[in-house]
Amino acid sequence: METLTSIIGKVVDYTVVPIGRQASYLIFYKGNFKMLADDVKDLQAARERVVHSVEEESGNGKEIEKDVKNWLEIVDELIETPKQLQQDPRRADVRCSSWRFPNLILLQGKGTFDRVGYLSTIDGVASSFSTRDSEIYETRESLKEDIVKALSNPNSCNIGIYGLGGVGKTILVEKVKIIAEQLKLFDKVVEAVVTENPDFKRIQGEIADSLGLRFDEETIFGRANRLRERIKMEKSILVILDDIWSMLDLKKVGIPIGNEHNGCKLLMTSRNQDVLVQMDVPNDFTFKLELMSENETWNLFQSMVGDVVKDNNLKDVAIQVAQKCEGLPLRVVMVARAMKNKRDVQSWKYGLQRLQSMPKKVLDGAFFGLRERL
């Protein structure tokens, strides 16, 4: 009798209990997964809102908070698990109800953040430049940071830099460009040199090359339309126009203006502030690049000319030569190259006499005729 009871018990264990479990599974399966699907749907909506905020902050040049990134990673993993269970119901267990609802609902609630992004310190990126640069252009570092902040400002559209020819506008813009690319402020950064007599086809070509665009059109108008449509394909883009001498027709170039493309920003350089005004650069986003200080001039000159200036017999005349460069980096570079490794006092005195006797207009023409871009 005991044996029969034992056998019946085992039969129940191996047949009735599993059947009961299966029945329970069949009863609760649809209900559980309907509730699970609803929770997943709500969580996906919360995720989408967070992703939109992330994209907006990234577009404004901000870094994303670590807790936001972690939340998105966890959400992606948890959303994927219910999908796998629905595709393979055999993996589903009634016990899934013990984890999925609290976790999904809790995660949905945690998808509300006080702050999604933050503006990373420009100093961190700027440190990638050499210490020597920082020492030479010590008063220009803050200006560089102000320009990058202006580019990051969601209210900015046109930003301008002005200053004397040879004062260093181009090299400043190049450094700003590097920082903008490292901070990923824009999806794309393109540039073109305008000059005193704009060659529209060349300007269009320089921008198009950066975008991988090849023109089939022959006319400036046709190329402008093509370039404009290509630029509008970029969600965010910075167009750098260097060395503008007079008002430039942006439509003729093919650059979207106004509300044509809100993701397009312009960074322009000119010798004349009035030109930037004509190009609709607001005063708040207009920056003047001043001449280098005497200390900056001497530091740059020393770094270019070499150790010869450490000779006490040469130092006094070398300082006078550096002063004749009048705080213009272009002059400093060209004069320093000419005097590099000259170790006799007579050569230095002759060089100083040449600089002193040469009319300023001729001096400027001699330097700028070399087409050095600084």
From TrEMBL:
Gene3D superfamilies (UniProt xref): Helical domain of apoptotic protease-activating factors (1.10.8.430), P-loop containing nucleotide triphosphate hydrolases (3.40.50.300)
Keyword Nucleotide-binding: yes
Keyword ATP-binding on entry: yes
Pfam families linked to this entry: NB-ARC (PF00931)
Domain NB-ARC residues, every copy: 141-307
Alphabetical GO biological process terms: defense response
UniProt cross-references to InterPro entries, sorted A to Z: Apaf_helical, NB-ARC, P-loop_NTPase, Plant_NBS-LRR
Molecular-function annotations in GO: ADP binding; ATP binding
Top-level lineage group: Eukaryota
Keyword terms of this UniProt record: ATP-binding, Nucleotide-binding, Plant defense
Full protein name: NB-ARC domain-containing protein
Species name: Trifolium subterraneum
